[in-house]
Design goal:
Oligomer: single chain
Largest sheet: none
Distance between the termini: 63 Å
Strand content: under 5%
Radius of gyration: 19 Å
Length: 200
């Protein structure tokens, strides 16, 4: 007796693909999801969106997002949240504007994701510029629930600015362990820290 995959099965598999960065399996599962007729189901749709953003495949993410017939607020939130988490803040804000233009109303979850990131990043940067790296670190440590590439970059740059190479590299490594894709700014920050002490 064969077992058929359901909404929960597909969502779980896509979450696993995202966490393990398995693009090949992710694309294969996307095909299976479309064939099975689950692509428009809420949880599955949101899992697909998060997966493609997680892979850094923005074009594919937006192509799928734009192709969904009826987007609910959860789907908008999932897409915006995934963009913020991966450090695509300008794309997240652009999507927020699209939501408003479409007559939708962002909820506290959507606003919270964007503003928490921006506020924390600004606070870390301000402390670092005042030479208070310990306070910058305390703010960073409190962002574990919504930590993304932008926050990691800000913390790495804070350490780099003060020549704390070990701490900068350690934070950079933690970014990779958090399954976040370092951006160009991430590498520039680490190189800056190394140059500060004449290591390069």
């Amino acid at each position: 007796m064969g077992l058929e995959a359901d909404e929960c099965t597909f969502s779980s598999i896509m979450e696993t693909c995202s966490k393990t960065e398995n693009q090949k399996l992710g694309r294969k599962m996307h095909g299976s999801i479309v064939k099975s007729g689950f692509a428009s189901h809420g949880y599955v749709c949101n899992s697909l969106l998060k997966c493609y953003v997680g892979f850094g495949m923005l074009d594919d993410s937006f192509e799928f997002f734009n192709g969904v017939e009826r987007l609910d607020l959860v789907s908008w939130g999932a897409m915006i949240s995934a963009l913020v988490r991966k450090g695509y803040s300008s794309e997240a804000i652009e999507l927020l504007n699209r939501l408003k233009d479409a007559g939708g109303q962002a909820d506290e979850f959507i606003f919270g994701g964007i503003f928490n990131c921006c506020a924390a990043s600004a606070l870390i940067d301000a402390y670092a510029k005042c030479g208070e790296t310990e306070n910058a670190r305390r703010v960073f440590d409190q962002t574990y629930r919504f930590r993304n590439v932008i926050l990691f970059n800000t913390m790495v740059m804070a350490y780099a600015h003060h020549g704390l190479v070990g701490e900068a590299v350690e934070t950079f490594e933690k970014m990779k362990l958090a399954v976040l894709q370092p951006s160009q700014a991430s590498f520039v920050s680490v190189i800056s820290a190394s140059c500060h002490l004449g290591l390069m």
